[in-house]
Amino acid sequence: METAIAGYTYGSDAVARSPLSAEEFDLLKKTVLFGAEDERYLRLAGEVLADQIEAVLDVWYGFVGSHPHLAIYFSSPEGVLDTEYLTRVRARFHQWILDTCNRPYDTDWLNYQQEIGLRHTRAKKNLTDHVRSVPYIGMRYMIAFIYPITATVKPFLANKGHSAEEVEKMHQAWFKSIVLQVTLWCLPYVEPANF
Amino acid sequence: METAIAGYTYGSDAVARSPLSAEEFDLLKKTVLFGAEDERYLRLAGEVLADQIEAVLDVWYGFVGSHPHLAIYFSSPEGVLDTEYLTRVRARFHQWILDTCNRPYDTDWLNYQQEIGLRHTRAKKNLTDHVRSVPYIGMRYMIAFIYPITATVKPFLANKGHSAEEVEKMHQAWFKSIVLQVTLWCLPYVEPANF
Ligand code: HEM
Ligand code: HEM
């Protein structure tokens, strides 16, 4: 199944290597208070979201599509939206939601976060899909997206009849994971000495 | 009152200037969905938090103090905690909670965010309090702190008898503001062309 997603190279030799040590990664998890309970609630979130992922993506793509300053990143340098690019990335985005919920956050996972980060920067944006688009996504929007990507998922977590407390725990685990991932994705934006 | 806080230079000529244009700032606010309703709920949060700020700071300082990888930033290069440094920064942190809730996010505010960002980087850390400490805070922890600084404030917002809906709206406004501010604070960490 996974190999059917164009450009999705998780676990393969084509993936970048994270420069972070296991200890540095561990300190980051501690800083966002990410622990075993969060892993359990992410698995539950994975079950809850499984048949709603396209609906979640509709919300996110709607958000990007309705804001010209975000849509440009999926457009040609002349500003024409590249729907094939959007569609190809969407398939990897779908898989990413599953990975966020279901994968162990091990070395393969950490390396793929480095890869995803790079794919938003000048180093690798556009290469995977062989597209002509703006060369990178400003780091400002990577961080700012923590808000919409966290907030918009909550109603979906509440759609399968779980208690308010369970929904809240799934949502907190999701929030921690997003902050953790965006932190990792910002690594290739800065001088190693400032990260 | 304000001039009594050592090193708090808000609105003065000593503050750095933000390189962001008003339009760029506006796009960031749009990206975190920050609007007039959030301003209203931040004002309410300001009222709710007013007599609880030291308790909030106790939680945050407890978190930093119990994690050696965070406490080093308030310590000498040899690792001895500098309690005077902690105390001086705490007074500005107190004021920052008030500012986050009560100030208009105008040019003075935007400039002070640039100043706060710089005070976490090699450019300005330690200068304000004339201390000898580690030279900068890694950008990774600036972003990662979005989680604890957002999550830990919620119980305090619920302490004054507001409805669950009002508490949630105050908390969302706080969350948006934290993401917005951390985004601004990360500006001096990167090449302008990558921000
Ligand atoms: C929390 C923030 C974000 C999340 C969770 C996120 C998620 C993702 C994921 C999962 C992928 C595919 C990774 C892969 O190739 O396997 C991706 C790629 C991409 N994202 Fe993001 N993203 C974020 C921020 C942004 C922002 C702010 C934009 C700007 C509109 C953006 C635009 C893109 C583009 C254009 C690609 C394709 C990059 C390429 O050419 O390979 N992303 N993103
Ligand atoms: C959401 C993240 C953070 C928030 C809201 C925050 C807030 C603040 C505030 C309001 C100040 C005082 C600003 C002024 O001078 O008026 C400050 C300074 C400081 N913060 Fe942070 N901070 C964050 C991240 C961090 C992290 C991760 C550390 C590491 C433990 C840290 C350590 C410090 C230190 C050492 C200072 C004093 C800097 C100086 O020498 O002037 N902060 N912070």
TrEMBL record, chains A, B:
CDD domains: Pgbs
Top-rank taxon: Bacteria
Domain Globin-sensor, residue spans: 22-191
Segment forming the signal sequence: none
InterPro entries listed in its UniProt record: Globin-like_sf, Globin-sensor_dom, Globin/Proto, Protoglobin
Protein name: Protogloblin ApPgb
Native organism taxonomy: Bacteria, Bacillati, Cyanobacteriota, Cyanophyceae, Gloeobacterales
